[in-house]
Each structure stands twice: as C-alpha cells, then as structure tokens.
Amino acid sequence: MALPSSARLTIDLDALAHNYAVLGAQAAGAEVAPVLKGDAYGLGAPQVGCRLWAEGARRFFVARLSEGEALRAALGPQRPCVIHVLDGMPAGTGERIAAADLTPVLTSLPQIESAAVFAAQSGRDLNVGLHIDTGMNRQGLTPTDARALAQSPDRLRGLEVELVMSHLGSATEPQSPRNRAQLETFAPLRALFPGARASLAASGGVFLGPDYRFDIVRPGVSLYGGGPFERPHPDLKPVAIFEAPILDIRTIAPGEMLGYGGSVVIQRPTRVAMVAAGYADGLIRAGKSGGAGWFAGAARPFLIINMDLIAMEIGDAPAAPGQMVELMGANALIDDLAEAAGTVAHECLVRLSERAERIYLGEAV
Ligand SMILES: *Cc1c(COP(=O)(O)O)cnc(C)c1O
Predict the structure, then answer these.
(1) Is 288 in the active site?
(2) 237 is catalytic
(3) pTM above 0.90, yes or no
(4) Where would you tag: which of 142, 207, 234, 246 has the fewest CB atoms within 10 A of its CB?
(5) How buried is residue 267: exposed, middle or buried, by Cβ count under 10 Å (0-12/13-18/19+)?
(6) Domain of 304?
(7) Is there an atom of ligand 1 within 6 Å of 202 CB?
C-alpha cells in the first residue's frame, strides 16, 4: 500500500455542530448568527453554511458582497435565511444586494442615503442593518450620526431597520474596561431603534456575560474551535484537523546547521522528522519558534518551517516515514499555534491553502 504522501485537512462538521450547540447554550436564548466571512475562515462557506442551517441557524454574517452572493447560491432557495453583509451597501451595489436577497449592515450616512435612494427607485422596502461604532473606531456610524438619524426618520424611508449592531474591540480581554465602556455606549443607541434587534457580541462577547448578548450573537472563531479569549476552551472541539506525513527521519550532529541561513545550529545529537507540510499549505512560518506539532503522544517542537517541509524534533519516539503528524487538531491547538506565530487563531485557519487534500467529516446537509 502506498504511504500517505501529502498533507490532509479534515474539516469536522460534527465538531462544528457541537460548537454551535455550545455557543447556543452559552448565548442562553440569544440567536446565534454564524460568521462565515473569508470562506468560513477558510473551511468552506458552502459546507459550513449548509451544516449550520441544518443545525438551526437562520442568519449569517459575511464581510463582502461577493461572499454573500456565493453563500446565497450555496444555500439555495430551499434554505431561506437572512445573510448580512458587513461591508454594507457600497454605492452602486443595490441591484446585486437585492438580487441575492442580502441584508446589508449599513456603515455610514452616505450608505444610508444611497440605500434609501435605491429603495425609492426600486419601489420596495429594503431590509437593512445599522452598524454603530461604539469605540472600535473601525467601521460604523458615529454615535452622533446614529442619534441624528433616529431624530429624522425620513432619512430611513424605504429602509426596514431590522438589526442594530456594534463590535467590541477588546472582547478577548475580559478584564478590559473598554468592554463595559462600549456596552454602555451601545445600550442607549440601540434603544433609539426599538423595532430592530440588537447585536454586540462576537465569540469573545458571548462569554463576557448576559449583558453583552442582546438579541443576536455573531461568533466566528469559536464555532471553528478557537477559544473566545484566545486560549483553548475545554467545551469547544477543533473543526480543522491538519495532518501531514513524515517523509524522512534523520539524526543531526552537533555543530551542524539545519535548513536555510544557519540560524538553527544543532547543539546535541538531534533526531528530526521531516514532515510534508509548510507555509505553502498555509502554516505560518513565524510559528517555527515556540510552535509544535503532535506526534506519538507528545508535543514535538518545530525547528524550521519552510515552504514544503517542517523539521520537528522527535527525540527517541518510534517513527517511520508515512506516519502522520498532527499540525492542528485536538492536541496541536490553533490557539497555541497562533500564540507561537504571534497571531490569532482566525489567521491560522484562514491561511490554510488549497494544496492539502480536503476531507469533510459529517454531513453538510
Ligand atoms: C469577524 C467578525 C465577527 C466574528 O468574530 P470572531 O472573533 O471570529 O468571533 C463578528 N462581528 C464582526 C463585525 C466581525 O468583523
């Protein structure tokens, strides 16, 4: 039998369903609206969306209009749901928004104005959300804009505001006073739009306590197994399991340099597995110092991450070419990988490339 020769990305849709249920329990009555931007954090928005719809999700968030169109096409007319586009409605996109039945989350007064013009021209009401900036300073109406809007409702003529949302800038740090400050800014602003449902929490916010949950929560990374506070959470399961085969095992003598550039100088006889994965698969090169794969029951520190090869120190573990090493999964946790690489679990997932073989576990529908 041929040995495995390439990396494998298993996307566990049953684990996804489990995490959706965990977040639902944690949200305690608030609607869980999964975030599927970036092709569902690189894991496949069609498969992820269909499975979450089957689990009960009826509202999704994407970033781009094109992502919304693709998700609507993948879900099809047999899976009705609300798809919110976080970019809102950039000028000239009304026809496409309407054609794909998307619900833009409007982010500025000019967007609101052009959405109202589009609604008037097309002769029917348009469902929209409003994004209010409560201190992240990234996207959304200023509180002043929001108050002005609430005082002149004619500016919203033809627009059915069904959602008012904001986004927390420091939700992964539960102790940060910024969370409470944003909450206190948001609460009176959402009350200006009493007919709309309110949403403040992404993954981190879901776990900050009941005050933060409002009507709708918008988790992304925790659905896919990343801890809400950038640390592993015991109730969440990994959805992306990335494994790659050992190609070769060698023992390197003291004084030798490993790989490019001579930055890794071997100090003592070191047994190393060469693994068939690298940054061309989307693994983050910066994770080479501090990161580890999992093999034969233990974490095995990386020595180098090249485009196609990873060298891992395996000590005296029994090993043979063709055996698989876990680079992401239940033991090699994405939060740990992210920490080693100086990034967030979101980036570890979204960078996974097309090179590895992809297998979906569990039903998509
Ligand atoms: C990405 C994003 C989310 C999801 O964030 P996670 O940290 O992945 O849970 C929610 N809301 C907005 C506005 C976002 O941009």
Answers:
(1) no
(2) no
(3) yes
(4) 234
(5) exposed
(6) 240-361
(7) yes
